[in-house]
Amino acid sequence: MFEALLEPHKISKEEFNTEEPTLRGELIDAQFDLLEAGPSSVVALILGMAALGRSACAKQLMTWMDPGTSGPLP
């Protein structure tokens, strides 16, 4: 299950910009599925070395999941 974590994952900025709308839509769908399922907890593990952008990734996910914010981080 965790073998995929051992392989480096990197995509270009262009590929990210192309995939981002789809990924955001899937995240929204998942949030609605969880809401319909009733009370639950979610844990997201973000692994990597400090210099690889763990904090930025976590902040971006929180921005996407916060209904009071729209768009990417400043």
Beta percentage is under 5%
Share in helix: 40-55%
Overall, the morphology is globular
- What is the helix tally? 2
Instruction: Tally the beta strands.
Output: 0
Structural class: mainly alpha
The radius of gyration is: 14 Å
- Biggest β-sheet description: none
Unreliable spans: none
Q: How far apart are the termini?
A: 35 Å
The ordered H/E elements are HH
Mean pLDDT: 77
Tell me briefly what this model is:
The chain is mainly alpha-helical. The protein has helices at 13-37, 54-65.
Describe the structure.
- The model has no long low-confidence stretch (mean pLDDT 77).
- The N and C termini lie far apart (35 Å).
- The chain has two helices and no strands.
- It is an all-alpha fold and 74 residues long.
- The longest helix has 25 residues, at 13-37.
- 50% of the residues lie in helices and 0% in strands.
- It is globular and about 35 Å long.
- The protein has helices spanning 13-37, 54-65.
Map the helices and strands.
Elements: H1 13-37, H2 54-65
